[in-house]
């Protein structure tokens, strides 16, 4: 999205001599969807999001509005408020009420927020989020229900644990807008709004837009920038804006000539690139028309949290797209993993992952649940044009070093979510 935003800005400034190079055959980058399952009523597949899925932080009355929310409304994206209070909790023995653990975490986090604000204003030495939570008397240790609650409250957002994350992360994200999050399930795909916005300044078959352009090298100097793609094409410009994901930069998937200076490499390597993997399953309904996760729970329930007895973050957060207001009767149930569990799942076969997922579901709902009709998940950590999902700010990364990540080298500029101090990891950063 950063590239489209940049070129729209140029267009609005009456600068029309630009080109857009995109490795994919669509506009949208990590805002990516695919087809999945089957709608029994129409015979057509559903559309599900592989990447970005929420408009996060909508805005409050009298305050600023999230620009992504503004565009979502402009282009009529179908979405629904994610009610994080609509949750059922489970462990290896099935439904087990430990929702109070979530309240305990949130109470501790309130203390962390106050301390983080003091650290920001006083420029104290940075600490890990774990330090802040421990000071606030949140110490889950080997209590797996507490670990699940913490994963739900923290890892699920940042893709890293509190041990690996900066103390003040939250202070630089939601506060400007609001704490509300809306889940996008538009069957045109979330990236429809990006493509629609691009259509306001790009013409059909615009020759300035080059899709399927796999960039292999970038030669930069004080005079110009030259881009070479895998098919041997060369593009030269007075200036260029690099919107590669942080993962691409860290994996040296593109050659820079000359090599980027040390200060620039340090900025790139000091930020974290997280992986957020959604694993989708579609199930058949029971004879009475309900789905197994709706039995014994409110059919309106949006989230289901699993505390594995051994492994923290083992297929923990489940979401029902059959809940009212989403995609009713779709039978789509999906689970999210991050970080090490993402790497595991993404490097093993679908069958191996499906077996693990179904074992977790049987712990939660019993052995009589049906086999899925369809099963699918992306592999963001090994996707050559992404190498991850979005960035996270680690402890110890200074503002000065992060500024080096964003800073230009001669006529080569850098943009994208990882370069933002305020909104790293969020779509509005771009």
From TrEMBL:
Highest taxon of source: Eukaryota
Domain Amine oxidase residues, every copy: 1-426
Family matches, as Pfam families: Amino_oxidase
SUPFAM superfamilies given in the database record: FAD-linked reductases, C-terminal domain, FAD/NAD(P)-binding domain
GO annotation terms (biological process): polyamine catabolic process
InterPro entries per UniProt: Amino_oxidase, FAD/NAD-bd_sf, Flavin_monoamine_oxidase
Record's protein name: Amine oxidase
Organism: Venustampulla echinocandica
């Amino acid at each position: 999205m950063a590239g489209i935003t940049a070129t729209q800005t140029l267009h609005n400034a009456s600068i029309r001599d630009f080109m857009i190079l995109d490795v994919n055959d669509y506009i949208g980058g990590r805002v990516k969807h695919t087809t999945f399952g089957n709608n029994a009523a129409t015979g057509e597949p559903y559309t599900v999001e592989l990447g970005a899925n929420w408009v996060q932080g909508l805005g409050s009355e009298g305050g600023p509005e999230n620009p992504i929310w503004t565009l979502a409304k402009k282009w009529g994206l179908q979405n629904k408020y994610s009610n994080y209070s609509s949750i059922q909790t489970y462990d290896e023995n099935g439904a087990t009420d430990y929702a109070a653990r979530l309240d305990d975490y949130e109470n501790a986090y309130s203390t962390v927020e106050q301390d983080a604000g003091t650290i920001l204003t006083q420029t104290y030495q940075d600490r890990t989020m774990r330090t802040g939570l421990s000071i606030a008397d949140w110490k889950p240790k080997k209590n797996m229900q507490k670990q699940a609650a913490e994963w739900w409250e923290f890892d699920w957002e940042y893709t890293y644990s509190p041990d690996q994350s900066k103390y003040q992360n939250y202070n630089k994200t939601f506060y400007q807008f609001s704490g509300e999050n809306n889940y996008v399930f538009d069957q045109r795909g979330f990236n429809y709004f990006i493509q629609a916005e691009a259509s306001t300044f790009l013409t059909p078959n615009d020759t300035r837009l080059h899709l399927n352009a796999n960039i292999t090298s970038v030669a930069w100097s004080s005079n110009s920038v030259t881009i070479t793609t895998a098919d041997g094409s060369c593009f030269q410009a007075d200036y260029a804006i690099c919107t590669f994901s942080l993962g691409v930069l860290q994996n040296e998937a593109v050659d820079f000539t000359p090599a980027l200076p040390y200060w620039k490499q340090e900025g790139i390597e000091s930020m974290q690139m997280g992986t957020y993997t959604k694993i989708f399953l579609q199930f058949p309904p029971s004879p009475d028309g309900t789905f197994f996760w709706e039995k014994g729970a409110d059919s309106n329930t949006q989230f289901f949290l699993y505390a594995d007895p051994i492994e923290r973050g083992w297929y923990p957060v489940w979401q029902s797209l059959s809940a009212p207001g989403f995609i009713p009767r779709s039978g789509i149930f999906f689970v999210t993993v991050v970080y090490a569990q993402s790497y595991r799942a993404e490097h093993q076969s679908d069958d191996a992952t499906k077996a693990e997922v179904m074992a977790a579901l049987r712990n939660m709902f019993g052995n009589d649940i049906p086999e899925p009709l369809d099963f699918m998940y992306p592999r963001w950590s090994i996707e050559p044009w992404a190498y991850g999902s979005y960035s996270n700010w680690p402890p110890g990364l200074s503002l000065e070093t992060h500024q080096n990540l964003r800073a230009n080298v001669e006529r080569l500029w850098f943009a994208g979510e990882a370069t933002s101090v305020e909104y790293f990891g969020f779509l509005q950063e771009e």
